[in-house]
Every structure is written in C-alpha cells, then in structure tokens.
Fold this protein.
Amino acid sequence: MLTHFFVTGTDARVGKTIVTRALLQAMAAQGKCALGYKPVATGSQELADGIRNKDAVTLQNSSTISYPYEKITPLALLDEDIYVSDIPENIFEIMTSGLNFMLEGGDAVVVEGCDGWKTLITPNRFYSDWVRQQNIPVILVVGIQEGCVSHALLSAQAIITDGLPLAGWVANRINPCLAHYQETIDAIGNNIPAPLLGEIPYLPRAESRDMAKYIDLSLLHVKNEQ
C-alpha cells in the first residue's frame, strides 16, 4: 500500500501546494488519514505567532489531523532560495525524523518539495538526494504554460535516472490564456512513462477550495519499499 510520496514540480510556482492539497483531500475522501509534510519551507514570514509559510499553512489546513505548524514544517526559512540560507548540517536527519513522525500518525503522507527536482539544499547537495535516500515515489506537477513540455520531460527523465518510481504527473493550468492546451497535455502524456493523475483548472483561491475531484487516486499503484 502506498504510504507516502513526494510532490515535486517542473519549477517554482507551478502549483505544488495546490496539487498536494488536492491529493490530501482525495485521500481523505476515501477515509484515509492523510497528512501534508513540507520539511523545508522557503519565503516564510515573521508573524506574531512565529515564522510562518503560507504553503505550509495550506498543508496544515488540508490534512486530516491538524498537527502543530512545527511538525508540518520543521525548517521554515525567510530566504526564497534554500542553499543561501542557514541550513544545519544535519538537515537530512531533521527531515527524516519529521517524516517518520508523520508516518506514525497517518495512513498516508504527502511530502511537498521546494522548486524543481534538482534544487540545491546546500551548495553541494540536492533536495532529491534526500528523496532518493528515503526511496519515495514521486509525483510531478507540471504548470501548463509556454515551454512546459520540455521542462516536464526533462524533469521526468531526471527522476527516473535517479532511480525513483515516477508514480504519476498532474497538470496544473496556471495560464488560462494558453493556446493549444489539449495538445500540450497530449504531448506530455505521450512521452512520460507515468499516468496523468489529474488536471487542475485555473481557479482563484484554490487553496481554500475542495480539490479532491480533480485527482484520480485509482491510478496510483506504486508501493513504498523501506
């Protein structure tokens, strides 16, 4: 049974958080205890109740159990870029400890990454190195816009080359004015060896909507191997 998977994107701002919310809600609709986990959150803000990241808060609100913010995101950073921030040496251990905590409390954990697949978490280590270490199946979010076909195929190739299962991909229509939408979907789908799990239409305030209907969980057949 699939217990956890990792959501990455073709780039930043392609809709990873919205897709993660949709996945969590779809799992909850099937009666599962589904938890969102964002180990590292960049671009956070200092607020009255501490450092907060809006994407992590969305995952907190989208989970079946509302865990404390610090459990959802053990490392919230003010910088937009990960590798220029003050990353502790034991960052992978921190991330793994948080994941294990989540796995103990839920039926399934959706882990949201930062930016694209080959994001640097330190000047010489990739975020994807941790995903490989944990052997987590990957779901790729493709923001449907100009140039996304190449980005999608390159990202899928990199994930597979790294030896991880590509469990599926999700199309997120971030540009409602893009011509040839269906042709773009077909071009990606015909060249990625993974199922299209869903298409997210362009929606204002998607972080507060019910997104479950846009995801087909029946296409997920990958098992986690520990």
About this structure: Helices lie at 16-29, 54-62, 69-72, 91-105, 127-134, 148-161, 181-189. The first strand starts at residue 4 and ends at 9.
